[in-house]
Amino acid sequence: MRRTSASLVAGALVAALAWASGPSSPAVALEPSPGVADLAQDINQILADSRLTIAQAGVMVKSAANGEELYSTDAGKLLMPASNTKLFTSAAAAEVLGLDYRFTTSVLSSGRKAGSVLTGDLVLRGTGDPTMLADDYDALAAEVAGSGVKLVTGKLVADDTWFDAVRLGQDWAWDDETAYYAAPISALTASPDRDYDAGSVIVTVAPDGGKVKVTTTPDTDYLEIVNKATVGSSTDVLIERTHGTKTVVITGTVASTYNEWVSVDDPASYTAALFRDALKKHGVRVLGKTVAGAAPGGAKELAKKESMPLSELLVPFMKLSNNIHAEILTKAMGRKVADQGTWAAGLKASSDFARANGVQVLNLRDGSGLSRRDGITPASIAQLLLAVRDKPWYQAWYDSLPVAGNADRFVGGTLRSRMRDTPAANNVRAKTGSLTGVTALSGYVTSADGEPLVFSIMLNQYLSSSPKDIEDKIAIRLAQFSRTATVDAAVQLKSAAKESPDLECSWLKPAQC
Predict the structure, then answer these.
(1) Which residues in the chain are classed under CATH 3.40.710.10?
(2) 33-99+312-512: what CATH class?
(3) Catalytically annotated residue among 63, 83, 263, 307
């Protein structure tokens, strides 16, 4: 049986009156304000949806003005948060690393330069920048050439030792290995576009006469393409990288241009290949082969690229729910606080931050929420949302949250197609979350009275299609909430599927979403 905050409020008032009146005086129960009681009734009705009969549903709503609990049901239950995990990762990163934090990618020389000849190795060293594009590595190569170097007698060393060598989360599903949203984590990596999906390549197929033409973005021969696709009357194509290899196998039929974002097997090796090609383009020849290793002490810097500050990176990270950003920031925090670029050190930093801000129940296994062993309660999320409002970095962090119903991809983010033309549109700012059988929505909304509210909705273990519309109905009802005015309890959403997609747009790319 669910116990709502309406009953909690009434119980608290009974106890308070009994104490004030003395032990011999009868307690008089006071009902909560009509607005709060109506809210509880309406949310209970929304949650009575038959799709949740066998599922788990936890909800917490509080006033951000005074912390008052307005609604609660199973808010203390440990549930899978999916990408709501990123609320903790992003907030901890803002606190631990600071909004001015920048990643650095540099080119170092371990030898002597005589004229245009560099005797020794050339080292490409990364610290995790997920925003590095092929053009950025080209600019570094141009800088090396501009220093007068034309020939390197030694090796090209790919240095990704800023992080450890563990590439994948220990709980990640094996069948996600080829997907861009579960790409290997490395301190030396590259993204194919300005979504900054680090560690992936865009593979494009298109009909070309009677054959299927395959291209990649960026243009690279690092991947080994096995093209078994044929031209057909419809596009039904599968593009997957074979486990533990560089081989991408393409099967099915192609009728029109189709793009697939595919993870690479080893981001550092892939990045070094891009850099070697760029060096060659700028007239710099490296005689030795490419190897993995650490830059030697005393190596001299020849070129450097700094990323955008964290304050800016938060936008593509949170708006598009970028898993790789979450994991890179987690390891960066570990490096900052414990000099260890590991998941263990970074997750401890995130957990320590959360607990220092009043969060009592938290189990983090990764930074993104891909792990099905992550566990958070709605009450914990609501506590985080309240606690960070006093942080100096809060405004930048708040601005990075997706905005309901705003069509701009870098404003609305994963909420851009939800709650349009409702009181929640351009009002609700919240983090989405999606896994099979899991959906979550947590964030901020302003009520009809202008009162700021925080909320967390977590739905787990359902077997139906996604019940994201239930989240939307609750969020819309919160936008309509008034402590004094009567609200029409009939909360309806448009029936169009795009209003509550089965998957958030972090799992789908722009053309599909």
Answers:
(1) 33-99+312-512
(2) alpha beta
(3) 83
